[in-house]
Amino acid sequence: MVLGSDAASGPAASAVPPRGSGRHIRLTSHSGAADALPIRWGAATAAERGPVLGTTTTRAHRNVIGTHSGSYSVYRALAVAAGALSPAHRADLTNTAPTDVIGPYPQWAEPGAIVSLDPWGAMVADAFSAELAAGHDIRPTIAITKAHVILPEVAEAIGKGRLRPDGRVLLDNGAALVTKAAIEPVWFLPGVAARFGCSENELRRVLFEETGGMYPELVTRGDLEVFLPPIGGQTVYIFGQPRDLADPDVELTARVHDECNGSDVFGSDICTCRPYLTHAIEECILGAQRGGVGLVAYSRKEGRALGEVTKFLVYNARKRQVGGDTADQYFARTECVAGVQDMRFQELMPDVLHWLGVRKIHRLVSMSNMKYDAITGSGIEVVERVNIPDDLIPADARVEIDAKTAAGYFTPGPVPDADELKVAKGRGLTP
Ligand SMILES: [Zn+2]
């Protein structure tokens, strides 16, 4: 496809000229504009904190590095390039207000408690109405709505008598009632650097260099401390009353789940991701029906944040290795391809819990020691850990679960020994 000369005849042709055609490029690396509102990260009120302004409609107002919508910021640029979207478009936020108010909670102003999302991101229309009226194009980075979720596993649990519709949390047609929130990443760079034990300068330099120099302000604009990274965000699903999440006396059942498209959506049986997720949803429904509240926090960190290409390469490497797919080589095969065993880095994960005001998780539906350590290390109490029931583990996922429990994942059962880990339990590549 050739862009440019014949663009007028293309399907995307419109009245909007592609940005940048015949114009000079606006460098972002000069120092701060006088019109930009300050951000005082961690301030106790929205007014003191100030709005996050990542829109490009009025560049002098920008007070962050990067733009909104996480990884979708690149699609927005494509829409502008194709002439389908005016770069000057401002969102009409009529009727988009959150269905439920989250916070503010004390954690929002605790130093270092939240560094990877904007706790005020859902309430910008209220909190910054004066700035919006004055012409600042402030966008929400969090949206909160209601939904019914219908899962075949929940219908099966009803059929087997494990779940009972109550017309409040679970309807007769198998739909569970949820409040859900979508959250875009908003990074306070000094705080993110502190979580990873590196200097802010080092973090900025590496982010700049390892993205091929995508955001020069990382290294030229030390005055901009907030970065909207082009990565996936997260979604939370709440079963019961969202305000109960912040009450340590209300039983909280929670799972923090990292995306696994192959299993979560397509039912691939090489791992336990979907069975564990749906088990957590069942536990959340039961907890909410007991008068508690349930929470699933879902992070877009596909394949341990290595991406699906790496993940599928690892699957092949595991299944073709001498001796077959064994638990004792599970992490080694990932490390061979990716250089690390895992890039999810749970250090930032507890932020979403602090945004929700969580102080205590009564039932954590996770076996991951990394998630458990990150949550408890951030000051949240965990009372009980809930493992995936054995009968929900697909046969081909036995390799994964054995390797993980041997590596320190929580299990109430026996931990496999070295000989057990050498037994090939995974299927080969041929049927
Ligand atoms: Zn998986």
UniProtKB/TrEMBL annotation:
Region named Disordered: 1-26
Coiled coil: none
MF term (GO), any: GTP cyclohydrolase II activity
Annotated GTP cyclohydrolase N-terminal domain residues: 24-210
A Pfam short name: GTP_cyclohydro2
Domain of life: Bacteria
GO biological process terms held by the UniProt record: riboflavin biosynthetic process
Key words of the record: GTP-binding, Hydrolase, Nucleotide-binding
Domain spans labelled GTP cyclohydrolase II: 243-386
Low complexity: compositionally biased ranges: 1-20
SUPFAM superfamilies per the UniProt record, alphabetical: RibA-like
InterPro entries reported for this sequence: GTP_CH_N, GTP_cyclohydro_II, RibA, RibA-like_sf
Protein name: GTP cyclohydrolase II
